[in-house]
Design a protein that fits this description.
It is a single chain. 62% of the residues lie in helices and 8% in strands. The chain contains seven helices and four strands, in the order ββαββαααααα. The strands form two sheets. A two-stranded antiparallel sheet has the order 1-2. β1 and β2 form a beta hairpin.
Length: 150
């Protein structure tokens, strides 16, 4: 699991029930009709889309198992230190995504995520929308391949 140094202390990320409970509380997504989507899936998808909110959400939830957990602004500061040191965010995204994608806790949910994503084009209202959805699914698959590469 990845480790983030915050104010001189190393915090090991864990994708567990504690991760899930905070993700459910803070990081759920809401559709146009007001339906809430899984917080853990939302973080996973944001990481997959190279969305920086995914990095922050991941680390906020991944350190939820600590009694004295860092505050969000401390996590942001620590992430900026890594970004400045590395010169980009690629390693951060890869480490966080792999931690979720390969987590025993999240493995079945990830498998379901990909199965459901495959079916998205079937819900298109017309050919144009179906084509857009197919492009989106391919992009997500390509991003996953890139993120799980060494």
């Amino acid at each position: 699991m990845p480790i983030l140094n915050i104010d001189g202390k190393d915090y090991e990320a864990k994708v567990t029930f504690k991760f899930n409970s905070l993700a459910k509380e803070k990081y759920y997504a809401e559709d146009k009709e007001g339906n809430k989507a899984s917080g853990i899936n939302n973080i996973y998808e944001k990481l997959l889309g190279y969305d920086h909110e995914g990095l922050l959400g991941f680390w906020d939830c991944a350190v939820n198992h600590y009694k004295e957990r860092p505050k969000t602004h401390e996590i942001e500061d620590a992430l900026m230190v890594v970004i400045e040191k590395e010169g980009d965010t690629e390693k951060l995204f890869k480490d966080c995504f792999k931690a979720m994608d390969q987590s025993g806790f999240f493995k079945l949910q990830a498998k379901k995520f990909w199965k459901d994503l495959e079916n998205v084009p079937n819900f298109a209202e017309d050919q144009k929308e179906k084509k857009q959805m197919e492009v989106y699914v391919k992009q997500m698959k390509d991003n996953r391949e890139e993120l799980i590469k060494k």
